[in-house]
Amino acid sequence: MPLAGWDFSWFEGRASEERPPWGYAGLLGERMARAKVALDVQTGGGEVVASIPKPPARLAATEAWPPNAIVAQRNLDPMGGRVARAAEDTLPFRDGTFDLVTSRHPVVAAWPEISRVLAPGGTYFSQQVGAGSNQELIDFMMGPQPVSQARSPRRAVEQAEATGLEVVDLREAALRVEFGDVGAVVHFLRKVLWTVPDFSAERYRERLLQLHQRIQAEGPFVAHSYRFLIEARKREPG
Prior knowledge:
There is one protein chain. This protein is an alpha/beta fold and 238 residues long. It has a single domain, classed as Vaccinia Virus protein VP39 (Rossmann fold, 3-Layer(aba) Sandwich). It has 8 helices and 8 strands. The chain has an 8-stranded mixed sheet, with helices on both faces. It starts with 14 loop residues before the first strand and ends with a strand.
């Protein structure tokens, strides 16, 4: 079961997540086709960017986790993309380099850095994980946990505007998630590490056994994820 990259095809037939109605990949492709110099931040394995039909003349990406960066470079090579290994809150590029910065499900949105590397009139386009995603699964595994608002759309707008960006589009969606067996839950928690930060199958053995019994008796375990789409533009001087 590969953990590198963001290819979730392993879950087919075992777990499912409803997709947001706006179709991020299609919208990304449209914006990439119009861009001249673009950056994809926290690209994972580069799978989403690699699916666009027409890349810009210059394409860069960042990724913090070395195994992901290797996969991403392999996926972006055919379109001339270059992957820089960088921490989530750092963009190792000059000011005003890009007319388009994108990111799908960033761990953190480094708004000051995003604003800094955008050229005047440039656009940031991102689909992000909202507050309370998979809270049902988190609470089952760890007991009731507070829901942080750090990932709320409202907070994202405030942070974007504080760095001089103008939010031109904001959309939200609540999506149904189903886990058909406990093995899918284990693989998900190993891949999406921040869901249950201290997770290991051994440490959560008893909870996993209870979850297995519940799925056997009641059917798929249902949770909900939250996504929001945000598009912001860097203001022109003056």
